[in-house]
Structure formats: structure tokens, C-alpha cells
Amino acid sequence: MIRRILIWDAPTRVFHWLQVISFAGAYLTSESERNRDIHMAFGYILLGLIAFRLLWGFSGTRYARFSSFLFKPGEIIAYLLSLFKGKPGHYLGHNPAGSVSVWLLLALGLFLCVTGVLALQDDAGDAVVEMHGIATNVVLAVILLHIIGVLVSSVLHHENLVRSMITGFKSAETEEGIRRSYNWLGAMMLVVAVVFWFVFLRPAGG
Amino acid sequence: MLRLFFLSGLLLAAPAAFAETPESVLASFKGDASGAPGFQGFSAARGETFFKTRQGGEWSCASCHTNNPAAQGKHAKTGKVIKPLAPAANAERFSDMAKVEKWFKRNCNDVLERVCTPQEKGDVLAYLLTIQK
To answer: Which residue in B has a C-alpha nearest to residue A203's C-alpha?
Structure first.
């Protein structure tokens, strides 16, 4: 019997969409010195999100844990081949190709934020600013591949993966959903991000 | 071995080969500005006024680079140190055309919310060239 089961906990979903907003916001303010503080706010939020995700990958619910999507290179290639043949294997959590984008985006995102912080320092050279710019373009490319992958997988598996990342639910015949959504933690993350935003960007005291 | 020396020599000389000077940048602006009707050359006095005046927005050039371009500046949002802008105080300034164009484009958008005309860029550089260390 097909049932609706919970796969993605609230912290994972909040992390995902706040990341989207933070990266988009930082990208749109990258060329403006007048909005440099807004750019920094988005960057710091992104850094905090990545730090959280690294912890949650070890302590979160089943499909959020890194151990649940550690695929061997052979499995990744097999999955990609099955995608091209139009008959991909179905995974409840991250599929092998999706897992690669997670690793890449976490590592690149971290590199992006760190080079950003370094670029703010008084003794920053041109090199660190260039690396920040190059990393941005690589991240953008991986995001594009990720979006294409999500759309292709959604069509081939007749499921709406975007909606699943919002609601947390997927349709499956098994009973292998997660038991708790940790909504309180997801809400707390949202509050912390919003509070940080307003505190960081408050006008300088007189 | 001789080819290795020759090639490394070329590579080391390459940056110097592409280097601009403030004067060559100014000449390049003059070439761009001459196209506009009524162009009568650059004016350091006009450049100084342009540099220090807020042009309808929140910032002037001096907001970050200060009223003394030979002095160290400070980013008005982040507080990051900005090395002096006047070529006499900082030999690296106006030596790389790509950097000149990148920062004029960015900062004119910050100050004026548009690009600077070749006239304005030339006036500003003419002014900066009058600054002593």
C-alpha cells in the first residue's frame, strides 16, 4: 500500500531553503559596496547554516545523516547511467547523484564563506578575492546541475521532489519514514537567522 | 636550458608588458571622451568637486577614500582599510586597466547609480594626479 511518509526533518528543510535565500541574496549584492553589509549578513547566515548541517549530519534523523548517503563511486556511476537510460533506481533519501551535489555544495559553500571572511580583512590580497569569485561561479554551476537533476528525477519517478523538500513527505510503500520532524529545532533556526539579520544590520548607535 | 630561461624571462616580463601608468589611463579616457561633442579636456578642479560631492545619493567618493586621496581610506560599511588612491601615495593605483574599469563601474554605481562618463573619469584622475604624497 502506498503511503505518505516523512523523510526530511524540519531542520534539514529549513537549512535547505534558508541556504537558497542566503546564496541568492549574497549573489545579488555581490557587486555593490553600498550593500556590502547585506552581502555579509547573508554570508554569515550561510556559514552558520553549513556549520549546523555538518553537526546535523552526525546527529540528525536517518535521511539527514551523512552515513545514509555515503555511496561508492561505482554506485554513483551506475545511478547516472540508469538516469540516462531513463530507468533510474529509486531512493527515499538522497540518491547517489544528489549526494554528490550535497558534498560539493557543503565543501564549496564553506570555501566560499571562508574566502569571503578573509576578503574582508585589511590585509586581504587580490588572490583571496579572486578565489571567492571563482568559487561563486563553481557553486552556481553545481546548483544548476542540482536543479536539473531534481527536475529529471522528479519526472522519471513521477514525484514532486521540490514539494517533498518543503513538506518533508514522499509517497512510498515501505514504512521507512522518520518518526520525529524536530519542528521546534527548525523554528529555532529560523528565529536565530532572522534575529541575526536584524542585529547585524542594525544602524550604528549614535 | 636556454629555452627555459627565455620562457621564464618572458613570463616574468609579461606583467610589466601589460602594466598601465596613470598617464596612459588618462590618455585612454581622453580618447573615449573626445567622442562627445563639446569636449574641452579634463579639469582637476571639476574632478575634485565631483570627488567630494554627494550626487543625490548617500555616498560620495570621499565617503570611503576620504577628502585627502593621499590618506588611507576606510570602507563606509565594513570599516576595511582602503589603501591610498592618489598615485603619488600608492604606486599600484591605475596600473591595471581591468582593475580601473572594475572599480569605476562598481563605485560609480554605488555613488551615482549609473556609470561614470569618460569626462568624469578623466576629471577625477586629473585631480588625483595633482595630489602630492
So the answer is: B77
